[in-house]
Structure to design on (81 residues):
């Protein structure tokens, strides 16, 4: 990140106008949409993903592929939205 002054800590305006792009793949959608898992590792991934999604997704332009959309529709219809 670029600052106009390290002492003031303000970002230059031309850097902040564009959001970085992040590609989201199927596992991210799955972790967000699935019911909480009883498996410790899966549950941890679900929680971490949910915290990131709520706290940081607004900072990025989120993109995905048609394949990810298709795969996500193949899951449990109860969690599809």
């Amino acid at each position: 990140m670029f600052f106009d002054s390290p002492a003031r800590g303000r970002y230059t305006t031309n850097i902040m106008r564009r959001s970085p792009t992040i590609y989201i793949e199927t596992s991210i959608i799955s972790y967000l949409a699935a019911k909480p898992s009883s498996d410790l590792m899966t549950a941890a991934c679900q929680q971490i993903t949910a915290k990131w999604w709520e706290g940081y997704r607004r900072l990025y332009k989120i993109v995905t592929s048609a394949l990810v959309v298709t795969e996500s529709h193949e899951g449990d219809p109860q969690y599809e939205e």
